[in-house]
Amino acid sequence: MKRIVIFASGNGTNAQRIIDHFKGRTDAQVVQVLSNNKSAKVLERASNSKISAISFNRTAFYKTDHILNLLKTTRPDLIVLAGFLWLFPEDIIRAFPDNVINIHPALLPDFGGKGMYGKYVHEAVYAFAKAHPKQKTHTGITIHKVTPEYDKGEFLFQAKVEVTRDDTPESIAEKVHKLEYKHFPEVIEKILIT
Ligand code: GAR
Questions:
Q1: Which residue, 1, 17, 30, 110, has most beta carbons within 10 Å?
Q2: CB of 9 sitting under 6 A from ligand 1
Q3: Could you read off the pLDDT of 72-126 as tens digits, one per residue?
Q4: Residue 151 pLDDT > 90
């Protein structure tokens, strides 16, 4: 069975979709959820699904081998960043080469980089569309391999959706979430089970 570990920082609606997608399967399953935020809803979601839920702080993550050693024990086939907002440490990427992926809520290389996460991405897309009313604007999702830099790394999948005149940052977020829920579990499945 392929083992999936998810890192997430907040609500974890994507994590929930991934957990549910693989629930009860014998070919792949989410075996652990880790968060940098001990009160993140995603940890509660994991516990409710009887999945190991662990939080860590900045020191443990960046200054010790705590999480690296934990992952070596868990032996994930794929590490999935699903709304994880901290830069991923190089030593963990090196320990699991090619097996760390991230979802970004826009069409990279646009609207990516440090500080570009969650609602800030959708606000930037909205501002761009407003500033270019004659141009058709698209947003979407990018699933990519993780490197030690924010939002770089080989693209594995993109899906796009049009930003219309009456969209708001909130409605853009909703459209993007829909794409995430539809495609992220499937892309993970394709990566793991081919
Ligand atoms: C998702 O839209 C994800 O793409 C985004 O955070 C959201 C988390 O939502 N990730 C980033 O912005 C990373 N740069 P969720 O916690 O409900 O899944």
A1: 30
A2: no
A3: 999 999 999 999 999 999 999 999 999 999 999 999 999 999 999 999 999 999 9
A4: no
140 phi and psi, to 5 degrees? 165, -150
Size of the chain in residues:
194
Centroid of ligand 1 to alpha carbon of 8 (angstroms) = 8
Alpha carbon 148 to its chain centroid, in Å, reads: 15
- Does residue 37 have its Cβ closer than 6 Å to ligand 1? no
Which residue numbers are catalytic?
104
Atom of ligand 1 nearest to the CA of 9: 16
H helix and E strand count, the chain: 7, 7
Query: Domain segments of the chain: what residues?
Result: 2-193
- Please tell me the residue having the least CA distance from ligand 1 atom 6: 83
Q: Domain 2-193 adopts which CATH fold?
A: Rossmann fold (3.40.50)
Quick check: CB of 118 below 6 Å from ligand 1?
yes
